[in-house]
Amino acid sequence: MLNVVKFNGVKEAAVIHAEGLRKRYGPAEALRGVDLDVPRGSVCGLLGPNGAGKTTLVRILTTLLRPDGGSARVAGCDVVRDADRLRYRIGLAGQHAAVDELLTGRGNLELFGRLRHLPRRTARSRAGELLERFGLAEAADRPAGTYSGGMRRRLDLAASLVVEPPVLFLDEPTTGLDPRSRLALWDLLRELADEGTTLLLTTQYLDEADRLADRIAVLDAGRVVASGSPAALKARVGGDRLYVAFREAADLTRGAEVIRGTLPGSPGAGPGAGPGTGPGANPSAASLAGSFAGSGNGAGVRAAGDMEIDPGERRLAVPVPDGAASLVAVASALNAAGIAVEDLGLRRPTLDEVFLRLTGADAA
Predict the structure, then answer these.
(1) CA-based torsion, 87, 92, 96, 102: positive or negative
(2) Which of 29, 64, 153, 222 is the most buried (most CB within 10 A)?
(3) Which domain holds residue 319?
(4) 49 & 132 share domain
Protein backbone atom coordinates (compact mmCIF):
# COMPACT_ATOMS: atom_id res chain seq x y z
CA MET A 1 0.00 0.00 0.00
CA LEU A 2 1.37 3.42 -0.98
CA ASN A 3 1.14 6.04 1.75
CA VAL A 4 1.03 9.67 0.65
CA VAL A 5 1.91 12.79 2.63
CA LYS A 6 2.17 16.47 1.69
CA PHE A 7 5.70 17.89 1.45
CA ASN A 8 6.24 21.54 0.45
CA GLY A 9 2.61 21.67 -0.66
CA VAL A 10 3.01 18.67 -2.98
CA LYS A 11 1.75 15.14 -2.34
CA GLU A 12 4.70 12.78 -2.02
CA ALA A 13 5.01 9.07 -1.29
CA ALA A 14 5.91 8.41 2.35
CA VAL A 15 9.16 6.47 2.21
CA ILE A 16 8.93 5.85 5.97
CA HIS A 17 5.48 4.96 7.30
CA ALA A 18 4.76 3.79 10.84
CA GLU A 19 1.31 3.10 12.22
CA GLY A 20 0.48 2.28 15.82
CA LEU A 21 3.97 1.05 16.71
CA ARG A 22 4.22 -0.40 20.20
CA LYS A 23 7.13 -1.79 22.18
CA ARG A 24 7.35 -2.91 25.78
CA TYR A 25 10.39 -3.71 27.91
CA GLY A 26 8.97 -5.68 30.82
CA PRO A 27 6.43 -3.44 32.56
CA ALA A 28 7.67 -0.31 30.79
CA GLU A 29 6.08 0.83 27.53
CA ALA A 30 8.75 2.40 25.32
CA LEU A 31 6.38 3.07 22.41
CA ARG A 32 2.63 3.58 22.86
CA GLY A 33 1.17 3.67 19.38
CA VAL A 34 3.57 5.77 17.30
CA ASP A 35 2.42 7.06 13.90
CA LEU A 36 4.98 8.61 11.58
CA ASP A 37 5.17 9.56 7.89
CA VAL A 38 8.35 10.84 6.24
CA PRO A 39 8.13 12.02 2.60
CA ARG A 40 10.71 10.93 0.07
CA GLY A 41 13.74 13.23 -0.12
CA SER A 42 12.96 15.05 3.12
CA VAL A 43 14.79 15.34 6.43
CA CYS A 44 12.80 14.35 9.52
CA GLY A 45 14.15 15.32 12.93
CA LEU A 46 13.16 13.11 15.83
CA LEU A 47 13.18 15.00 19.14
CA GLY A 48 12.31 13.96 22.66
CA PRO A 49 13.60 13.81 26.23
CA ASN A 50 15.52 10.84 27.60
CA GLY A 51 13.30 7.77 27.63
CA ALA A 52 10.86 9.20 25.08
CA GLY A 53 11.34 6.22 22.73
CA LYS A 54 13.54 7.76 20.01
CA THR A 55 16.18 5.03 19.98
CA THR A 56 13.58 2.28 20.20
CA LEU A 57 11.74 3.72 17.21
CA VAL A 58 14.92 3.95 15.13
CA ARG A 59 15.90 0.39 16.05
CA ILE A 60 12.51 -0.88 14.89
CA LEU A 61 12.64 1.08 11.64
CA THR A 62 16.13 -0.29 10.91
CA THR A 63 15.12 -3.94 11.64
CA LEU A 64 17.27 -4.19 14.78
CA LEU A 65 14.22 -4.68 17.01
CA ARG A 66 10.81 -6.24 16.45
CA PRO A 67 7.75 -4.23 17.49
CA ASP A 68 5.15 -5.73 19.82
CA GLY A 69 2.34 -4.11 17.86
CA GLY A 70 1.58 -1.90 14.90
CA SER A 71 3.36 -1.90 11.56
CA ALA A 72 6.02 0.01 9.65
CA ARG A 73 7.29 0.15 6.10
CA VAL A 74 10.55 1.70 4.96
CA ALA A 75 11.50 2.05 1.28
CA GLY A 76 8.60 -0.22 0.34
CA CYS A 77 9.61 -3.02 2.74
CA ASP A 78 7.81 -4.21 5.85
CA VAL A 79 10.28 -3.94 8.75
CA VAL A 80 9.35 -7.42 10.02
CA ARG A 81 8.39 -9.50 6.98
CA ASP A 82 10.93 -7.95 4.58
CA ALA A 83 13.73 -7.27 7.07
CA ASP A 84 16.50 -8.95 5.04
CA ARG A 85 15.58 -7.07 1.87
CA LEU A 86 15.21 -3.78 3.74
CA ARG A 87 18.73 -3.93 5.17
CA TYR A 88 20.11 -3.48 1.67
CA ARG A 89 18.01 -0.33 1.15
CA ILE A 90 18.96 1.67 4.22
CA GLY A 91 22.03 3.17 5.81
CA LEU A 92 22.56 3.65 9.54
CA ALA A 93 25.11 5.87 11.27
CA GLY A 94 25.02 5.36 15.01
CA GLN A 95 25.90 7.74 17.78
CA HIS A 96 29.51 6.56 17.86
CA ALA A 97 31.68 6.13 14.76
CA ALA A 98 31.82 2.42 13.87
CA VAL A 99 35.14 2.31 12.05
CA ASP A 100 38.14 -0.02 12.31
CA GLU A 101 40.93 2.15 13.68
CA LEU A 102 43.65 -0.16 12.37
CA LEU A 103 42.45 0.04 8.78
CA THR A 104 42.99 3.09 6.61
CA GLY A 105 40.06 5.27 5.64
CA ARG A 106 40.11 3.69 2.21
CA GLY A 107 40.36 0.22 3.70
CA ASN A 108 37.33 0.83 5.91
CA LEU A 109 35.15 1.88 2.99
CA GLU A 110 36.30 -0.98 0.77
CA LEU A 111 35.57 -3.40 3.61
CA PHE A 112 32.05 -2.03 4.04
CA GLY A 113 31.51 -2.32 0.30
CA ARG A 114 32.59 -5.95 0.26
CA LEU A 115 30.40 -6.71 3.29
CA ARG A 116 27.48 -5.29 1.32
CA HIS A 117 28.38 -7.66 -1.54
CA LEU A 118 29.80 -5.09 -3.93
CA PRO A 119 32.34 -6.51 -6.42
CA ARG A 120 35.93 -5.71 -5.41
CA ARG A 121 36.45 -3.21 -8.23
CA THR A 122 33.12 -1.49 -7.53
CA ALA A 123 33.90 -1.28 -3.80
CA ARG A 124 37.29 0.30 -4.57
CA SER A 125 35.77 2.81 -6.98
CA ARG A 126 32.95 3.73 -4.60
CA ALA A 127 35.43 4.18 -1.73
CA GLY A 128 37.40 6.65 -3.83
CA GLU A 129 34.26 8.64 -4.69
CA LEU A 130 33.19 8.88 -1.06
CA LEU A 131 36.65 9.82 0.22
CA GLU A 132 36.72 12.68 -2.24
CA ARG A 133 33.19 13.84 -1.45
CA PHE A 134 33.68 13.78 2.31
CA GLY A 135 37.00 15.62 2.23
CA LEU A 136 39.05 12.60 3.26
CA ALA A 137 41.06 11.98 0.09
CA GLU A 138 44.32 13.33 1.51
CA ALA A 139 43.97 11.13 4.60
CA ALA A 140 42.67 8.10 2.69
CA ASP A 141 45.74 5.94 3.32
CA ARG A 142 46.22 6.84 6.97
CA PRO A 143 44.91 4.53 9.72
CA ALA A 144 41.49 5.68 10.90
CA GLY A 145 42.88 5.69 14.45
CA THR A 146 44.86 8.82 13.55
CA TYR A 147 41.74 10.72 12.41
CA SER A 148 40.17 13.56 14.38
CA GLY A 149 36.66 13.16 15.77
CA GLY A 150 35.15 15.07 12.86
CA MET A 151 37.05 12.97 10.31
CA ARG A 152 35.92 9.72 11.94
CA ARG A 153 32.33 10.92 11.90
CA ARG A 154 32.59 11.74 8.20
CA LEU A 155 34.17 8.34 7.52
CA ASP A 156 31.36 6.62 9.43
CA LEU A 157 28.75 8.53 7.44
CA ALA A 158 30.55 7.68 4.19
CA ALA A 159 30.49 4.00 5.16
CA SER A 160 26.72 4.14 5.59
CA LEU A 161 26.44 5.43 2.01
CA VAL A 162 28.60 2.83 0.27
CA VAL A 163 25.58 1.23 -1.43
CA GLU A 164 23.80 4.57 -2.04
CA PRO A 165 20.74 3.77 0.11
CA PRO A 166 17.54 5.73 -0.53
CA VAL A 167 16.98 6.08 3.23
CA LEU A 168 19.56 7.05 5.84
CA PHE A 169 19.08 6.89 9.62
CA LEU A 170 21.34 9.06 11.79
CA ASP A 171 21.51 8.80 15.57
CA GLU A 172 22.84 12.09 16.97
CA PRO A 173 25.22 12.55 14.02
CA THR A 174 27.19 15.53 15.38
CA THR A 175 27.55 14.62 19.06
CA GLY A 176 31.02 15.54 20.28
CA LEU A 177 32.00 17.52 17.20
CA ASP A 178 33.42 21.04 17.31
CA PRO A 179 31.33 23.83 15.71
CA ARG A 180 33.30 23.84 12.45
CA SER A 181 32.94 20.07 12.02
CA ARG A 182 29.24 20.27 12.84
CA LEU A 183 28.66 22.89 10.15
CA ALA A 184 30.59 20.85 7.58
CA LEU A 185 28.55 17.75 8.37
CA TRP A 186 25.30 19.72 8.18
CA ASP A 187 26.23 20.83 4.67
CA LEU A 188 26.90 17.22 3.63
CA LEU A 189 23.58 16.02 5.04
CA ARG A 190 21.67 18.80 3.32
CA GLU A 191 23.35 17.89 0.02
CA LEU A 192 22.25 14.27 0.43
CA ALA A 193 18.65 15.36 1.02
CA ASP A 194 18.76 17.68 -1.99
CA GLU A 195 19.86 14.71 -4.10
CA GLY A 196 16.82 12.70 -3.01
CA THR A 197 18.05 10.71 -0.01
CA THR A 198 15.48 10.53 2.79
CA LEU A 199 17.01 11.25 6.20
CA LEU A 200 15.66 10.52 9.66
CA LEU A 201 17.85 11.87 12.43
CA THR A 202 17.71 12.00 16.18
CA THR A 203 19.55 14.88 17.77
CA GLN A 204 20.07 16.55 21.12
CA TYR A 205 20.86 19.84 19.39
CA LEU A 206 17.67 21.74 18.67
CA ASP A 207 19.49 24.21 16.44
CA GLU A 208 20.56 21.22 14.36
CA ALA A 209 16.97 20.10 13.87
CA ASP A 210 15.97 23.67 13.09
CA ARG A 211 18.72 23.98 10.49
CA LEU A 212 18.34 20.58 8.80
CA ALA A 213 14.83 19.24 9.24
CA ASP A 214 11.94 19.80 6.85
CA ARG A 215 9.68 18.10 9.38
CA ILE A 216 10.01 17.39 13.08
CA ALA A 217 8.33 14.74 15.19
CA VAL A 218 8.37 15.29 18.96
CA LEU A 219 8.19 12.14 21.07
CA ASP A 220 7.26 12.13 24.73
CA ALA A 221 6.55 9.08 26.87
CA GLY A 222 6.38 6.82 23.83
CA ARG A 223 3.96 8.93 21.79
CA VAL A 224 4.29 11.50 19.02
CA VAL A 225 2.91 14.60 20.74
CA ALA A 226 3.45 16.95 17.79
CA SER A 227 4.74 16.91 14.24
CA GLY A 228 5.15 19.39 11.43
CA SER A 229 7.63 21.84 9.96
CA PRO A 230 9.82 23.84 12.37
CA ALA A 231 7.87 26.99 11.45
CA ALA A 232 4.51 25.32 12.10
CA LEU A 233 5.61 24.01 15.49
CA LYS A 234 6.94 27.42 16.50
CA ALA A 235 3.63 28.99 15.53
CA ARG A 236 1.95 26.70 18.07
CA VAL A 237 3.72 28.44 20.95
CA GLY A 238 2.91 31.95 19.74
CA GLY A 239 4.13 34.57 17.32
CA ASP A 240 6.76 37.29 17.58
CA ARG A 241 7.70 38.84 20.91
CA LEU A 242 8.95 42.38 21.35
CA TYR A 243 11.86 42.80 23.76
CA VAL A 244 12.76 46.19 25.26
CA ALA A 245 15.65 46.98 27.62
CA PHE A 246 15.50 50.42 29.25
CA ARG A 247 18.49 52.61 30.07
CA GLU A 248 17.05 53.72 33.41
CA ALA A 249 15.16 51.51 35.86
CA ALA A 250 12.81 54.41 36.59
CA ASP A 251 11.59 54.30 32.98
CA LEU A 252 10.45 50.68 33.13
CA THR A 253 6.96 51.35 34.52
CA ARG A 254 6.31 54.35 32.27
CA GLY A 255 7.74 52.53 29.26
CA ALA A 256 5.42 49.59 29.89
CA GLU A 257 2.45 51.97 29.98
CA VAL A 258 3.52 53.59 26.70
CA ILE A 259 3.90 50.20 25.04
CA ARG A 260 0.48 49.09 26.29
CA GLY A 261 -1.04 52.23 24.85
CA THR A 262 0.67 51.73 21.51
CA LEU A 263 0.07 48.08 20.64
CA PRO A 264 -3.15 47.18 18.77
CA GLY A 265 -6.00 46.20 21.07
CA SER A 266 -4.43 47.83 24.14
CA PRO A 267 -6.21 50.50 26.22
CA GLY A 268 -5.47 53.91 24.76
CA ALA A 269 -4.10 52.46 21.55
CA GLY A 270 -6.14 54.85 19.45
CA PRO A 271 -9.20 54.48 17.21
CA GLY A 272 -10.46 50.96 16.91
CA ALA A 273 -8.54 49.73 19.92
CA GLY A 274 -10.26 47.17 22.05
CA PRO A 275 -11.54 48.14 25.47
CA GLY A 276 -9.17 45.81 27.28
CA THR A 277 -11.81 44.39 29.56
CA GLY A 278 -12.67 40.87 30.54
CA PRO A 279 -10.50 37.82 31.37
CA GLY A 280 -6.92 38.14 30.16
CA ALA A 281 -7.35 41.83 29.28
CA ASN A 282 -4.31 44.08 29.18
CA PRO A 283 -3.52 45.47 32.64
CA SER A 284 -4.13 49.09 33.54
CA ALA A 285 -1.38 51.51 34.47
CA ALA A 286 -2.22 50.90 38.12
CA SER A 287 -1.82 47.15 37.83
CA LEU A 288 1.41 47.60 35.87
CA ALA A 289 2.75 49.79 38.64
CA GLY A 290 1.78 47.08 41.09
CA SER A 291 3.91 44.61 39.18
CA PHE A 292 6.97 46.65 40.10
CA ALA A 293 6.08 47.33 43.71
CA GLY A 294 8.95 46.35 45.95
CA SER A 295 11.01 45.04 43.05
CA GLY A 296 14.62 45.93 43.49
CA ASN A 297 17.65 44.76 41.59
CA GLY A 298 17.73 41.02 41.13
CA ALA A 299 13.97 40.64 41.24
CA GLY A 300 12.67 37.79 39.16
CA VAL A 301 10.57 37.92 36.02
CA ARG A 302 6.97 38.95 36.73
CA ALA A 303 3.84 38.73 34.64
CA ALA A 304 1.50 41.64 34.00
CA GLY A 305 -1.18 40.21 31.75
CA ASP A 306 0.69 38.82 28.76
CA MET A 307 3.69 41.10 29.38
CA GLU A 308 6.78 39.65 31.07
CA ILE A 309 8.69 42.17 33.18
CA ASP A 310 12.20 41.74 34.60
CA PRO A 311 12.90 44.72 36.92
CA GLY A 312 16.41 43.51 37.77
CA GLU A 313 17.44 43.66 34.11
CA ARG A 314 15.27 46.72 33.33
CA ARG A 315 13.57 44.92 30.47
CA LEU A 316 10.23 43.55 29.36
CA ALA A 317 8.82 41.29 26.69
CA VAL A 318 5.36 41.28 25.14
CA PRO A 319 3.75 39.33 22.27
CA VAL A 320 3.02 41.46 19.20
CA PRO A 321 0.55 40.64 16.43
CA ASP A 322 2.30 42.18 13.46
CA GLY A 323 6.01 42.01 14.10
CA ALA A 324 7.93 44.80 12.36
CA ALA A 325 4.99 47.24 12.35
CA SER A 326 4.70 46.95 16.13
CA LEU A 327 8.45 47.41 16.50
CA VAL A 328 8.36 50.68 14.53
CA ALA A 329 5.30 51.96 16.41
CA VAL A 330 6.78 51.20 19.83
CA ALA A 331 10.15 52.76 18.96
CA SER A 332 8.41 55.94 17.79
CA ALA A 333 6.16 56.12 20.87
CA LEU A 334 9.03 55.62 23.32
CA ASN A 335 11.10 58.25 21.55
CA ALA A 336 8.17 60.71 21.64
CA ALA A 337 7.80 60.08 25.37
CA GLY A 338 11.50 60.80 25.94
CA ILE A 339 12.20 57.28 27.20
CA ALA A 340 15.71 56.00 26.39
CA VAL A 341 16.20 52.33 25.56
CA GLU A 342 19.36 50.23 25.43
CA ASP A 343 17.95 47.50 23.24
CA LEU A 344 14.79 46.97 21.22
CA GLY A 345 14.06 44.02 19.00
CA LEU A 346 11.83 41.18 17.85
CA ARG A 347 12.40 37.52 18.53
CA ARG A 348 10.53 34.58 17.13
CA PRO A 349 9.90 31.45 19.21
CA THR A 350 12.81 29.02 19.19
CA LEU A 351 12.65 25.26 18.81
CA ASP A 352 13.86 25.07 22.42
CA GLU A 353 10.67 26.83 23.54
CA VAL A 354 8.57 24.49 21.41
CA PHE A 355 10.30 21.48 22.93
CA LEU A 356 9.91 22.67 26.51
CA ARG A 357 6.28 23.64 25.97
CA LEU A 358 5.41 20.24 24.47
CA THR A 359 7.43 17.99 26.76
CA GLY A 360 8.36 20.03 29.82
CA ALA A 361 11.83 18.47 29.65
CA ASP A 362 15.34 19.10 28.41
CA ALA A 363 16.29 17.78 24.98
CA ALA A 364 18.33 14.59 24.84
Answers:
(1) positive
(2) 153
(3) 241-348
(4) yes
